[in-house]
Write a structure and sequence with these properties.
- The protein is mostly helical.
- Helix 2 crosses helix 3 and helix 2 packs across helix 5.
- The chain starts with a helix and ends in a 13-residue tail after the last helix.
């Protein structure tokens, strides 16, 4: 393949990428609940490898959260026990996003209203 043909092909691929990025819905770029859950899962996976004892410490803290009994526990109880810690890590990050969507900011969030 000639240098010119290769350069032309790369230009076309770059143009395709730019067009694809421009036509994607803005929601794709949003920091939304699935993105929070994904980050919680990633954090859990990293801790599972690098610091398993930290998972128990974080779980203990999250079990004190007001949403643990009112929102998370029912969902966690439906899962096999081996999957509950990771799911808790996935559910917890959405609390901050929910409060933000309700116009609440720390220290006015529901955690301080216990």
């Amino acid at each position: 393949m000639s240098v010119n043909r290769l350069a032309e092909k790369q230009s076309v691929n770059c143009l395709r990428l730019v067009v694809a990025l421009l036509v994607m819905p803005l929601q794709v770029w949003a920091w939304d609940p699935p993105a929070h859950m994904l980050n919680g899962s990633i954090a859990y996976q990293i801790l599972r490898v690098e610091s398993p004892s930290t998972i128990a410490k974080v779980r203990t803290i999250l079990e004190q959260h007001p949403w643990y009994e009112t929102r998370w526990r029912e969902q966690l109880d439906k899962l096999p026990s081996a999957e509950r810690d990771e799911m808790l890590f996935m559910l917890a990050p959405n609390w901050a996003e929910y409060n933000k969507s309700q116009g609440m900011t720390w220290p006015d969030s529901d955690v301080t209203r216990r």
